[in-house]
Amino acid sequence: MKEYVAIILTGCILFASVFVSANFELKEDELTQTLSQQKATASEIYYVKNYKGYVSIFKKNEKSPMIKTDTLVSSLPYDDQDKLKEGIEVKGDTSLRKCLEDFCS
């Protein structure tokens, strides 16, 4: 019986890790498409911040996010949560991708 439970738990953990990895790749593809559609440049300014409890990306001076990730802000360390309340300024799409990798992977 204990072996059966251990096998089920191991399967659930493996499934969850594959799902999270696949989900991040989908978000990265979505980000790439969005940035290319909006002709992002190295000087484009974005803000990564908390929007309705999720890590989200805003263009400068925009009130609604261009992308809302599936990453819950509450799942992040408190220091990161505080930074996201204020908003983190990011310049360029390369820096934006790195910032998202840090929060969403």
How do the strands and helices of this protein lay out in sequence?
Blueprint lengths: L1 H36 L7 E7 L2 E6 L7 E6 L5 H9 L1 E4 L1 H12 L1
Antiparallel strand pairs: 1-2, 1-4, 2-3
What does this entry show, briefly?
The chain is 54% helix and 22% strand. It is of the alpha+beta class and 105 residues long. It has a four-stranded antiparallel sheet.
Structural write-up:
About 11% of the residues have low confidence. The termini are far apart. It is globular, with a radius of gyration of 17 Å. The longest helix has 36 residues. A four-stranded antiparallel beta sheet has the order 3-2-1-4. The protein has 105 residues and is α+β, with helices and mostly antiparallel strands. The protein has three helices and four strands; from the N terminus they run αβββαβα.
Q: Biggest sheet, strands in spatial order?
A: 3-2-1-4
What is the H-and-E element order? Answer: HEEEHEH
Query: What's the number of helices?
Result: 3
User: What would the average pLDDT be, to the nearest integer?
Assistant: 74
Question: Spans with pLDDT under 50 lasting ≥5 residues?
Answer: 14-25
Q: Given the helix and strand composition, which structural class is it?
A: alpha+beta
- Seen as an oligomer or otherwise, the chain set is single chain
Sheet of most strands: 4 strands, antiparallel
- Provide the gyration radius in Å: 17 Å
Distance between the termini: 34 Å
- Give the strand tally: 4
User: What is the helix content?
Assistant: 40-55%
Percent in strands: 15-25%
Overall geometric form? globular
